[in-house]
Amino acid sequence: MLGQPKESRVLRLLGERDSAQAWEIRDFLRRSGVAFDWVELVSDDDCRRELGLPNLRNVRLPVVELPQGTRLFSPTVQEVASQLGFVTKPRLREYHLSIYGAGPAGLSAAVYAASEGLSTVLVERSAVGGQAGTTSMIENYLGFPDGINGAELAERARQQAVKFGVELLMMQEGVKSEFHDNRIWTDLADGSKMIARANICATGVEWRRLNLANEDRLLGRGLYYGAGASEAPLCGGEDVVVVGGGNSAGQAVMHLAAHATTVTMLVRDKALAASMSEYLSSRILTQPNVHVRYEASVTGLDGEKALERIQITSRSTGESEWVATPRLFVAIGGVPNTEWASQTPIMRDSGGYLIAGPDLLTNGKAPTCWKLSRLPYYLETSVPGSFAAGDVRHRSIKRVATAAGEGAMAVAFVHRYLEETA
Q1: Does the pTM of the predicted model rise above 0.85?
Q2: CA angle, residues 347, 353, 357, in degrees to nearest 5
């Protein structure tokens, strides 16, 4: 019968191949650990078979079909998350600790804080995992000799945090924070308010953009940031390109190589980044369907409805050429999401990273905005009781294990701060 949902035990996402909206939902579902089937709709026959509706032109795509049969037509990620029960408001008027960012640092902090009896709220504006959650495989994390998918690691940590009583607010973010009365007072984007005695900023970094014409228009339509874990299975028979020379780009290359016909890796320097793990660079250089181009940059993007070709420019000769590809994955490092700090006393470096602990000191003295007799604790920002952990911190080591360690360490200093302000 027309309009009746097709039976399914898992969520289904139906849409067109080059739909940016479908990609955004697909990426969110995968990073959130939600099992789903992706169904590409090409023709009216597909529409009739999969949706029981007469033709594509009258359907608002993409369509999310929940396991119980409810259909969402052209939904936002926020609407999908709400239907899945991910979107909630703060339950308590005040918390011991608020944590912003559910990447490895934030999740680790949440687990340790809640397990030690602190009322803890974890705020994440997207999916859990941060940049690590977009990584196809993490192979040098302690305790996983065969490696672990970034989204899976994040989901395990989320479950562990929830088990200890952490309140997780997804698809939420703070729009304004004030520090007074030994509290952080935060206005959330949905209009709700939250108070905490201490806080940890673990918002990590966002992918650095190419800053090219057509970038926004082609995002999700052949242009992607990160490892493209949700897109790799769709790359069969394609010649794809990855730009970047670090570990994130390397993992993307190897993951995509298992699906695509060929993978071209564009590296701006004369060699793979010194920060890339040796085991990973060795695999890349011996993978038969991977080609590495050194001293190369992407300088142009072109395509009508979706990405069709990119311009590659040699950094040594200046010569350029257009190369056909349906997909470009960009992993050229990140920039911190700390613009919110500009309206607070929290100090940042020239790159926007939060300065904390010993890095705040000049000739052994704290900055003038620091009013306490003691010096800032390690990981404590220029606002007492406000800590920074993980990639968002000035001079941090960009590794999952380090971020997780800093999250746990920050909680130890939170306890000290709470004791002195009790």
Answers
A1: yes
A2: 60
